[in-house]
């Protein structure tokens, strides 16, 4: 499973771009997804990122591995110290 994140150039923002789409695709064929994204979104106006949706992390208190979404904030992830100090 992969997640596609699309950013549009926008000079009104501090970073110079803004996120306009985040969509999950249930496929194992990365090259086909990459080809589709490259030909759907014009590179001169948009920047795209393709991430594996689920990543494996290690809980720092128990040492056990678990899976979580790639975009989980650090303060909400048991793999970070800030999660346990709140």
List keywords for this structure.
86 residues; three-stranded antiparallel beta sheet; 2 domains; flat
Strand coverage percent: 35-45%
Number of strands: 5
Overall number of structural domains: 2
> Can you count the helices?
2
First and last CA, distance: 32 Å
**Major β-sheet profile:** 3 strands, antiparallel
The coarse silhouette is flat
Describe the fold and architecture.
The chain is of the alpha+beta class and 86 residues long. The protein is 19% helix and 40% strand. Strands 2-1-3 form a three-stranded antiparallel beta sheet, covered by helices on one side. The mean pLDDT is 90.
Annotate the secondary structure layout.
Blueprint: E1 2-9, E2 17-25, H1 30-40, E3 46-52, E4 54-58, E5 65-69, H2 81-85
Antiparallel strand pairs: 1-2, 1-3, 4-5
Quick overview:
This protein has 86 residues and is α+β, with helices and mostly antiparallel strands.
């Amino acid at each position: 499973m992969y997640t596609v994140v699309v950013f549009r150039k926008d000079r009104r923002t501090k970073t110079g771009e803004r996120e306009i789409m985040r969509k999950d695709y249930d496929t194992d064929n990365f090259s086909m997804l990459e080809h589709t994204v490259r030909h759907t979104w014009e590179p001169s106006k948009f920047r795209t990122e393709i991430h594996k949706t689920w990543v494996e992390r290690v809980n720092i208190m128990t040492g056990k591995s678990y899976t979580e979404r790639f975009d989980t904030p650090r303060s909400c992830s048991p793999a970070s110290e800030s999660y346990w100090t709140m």
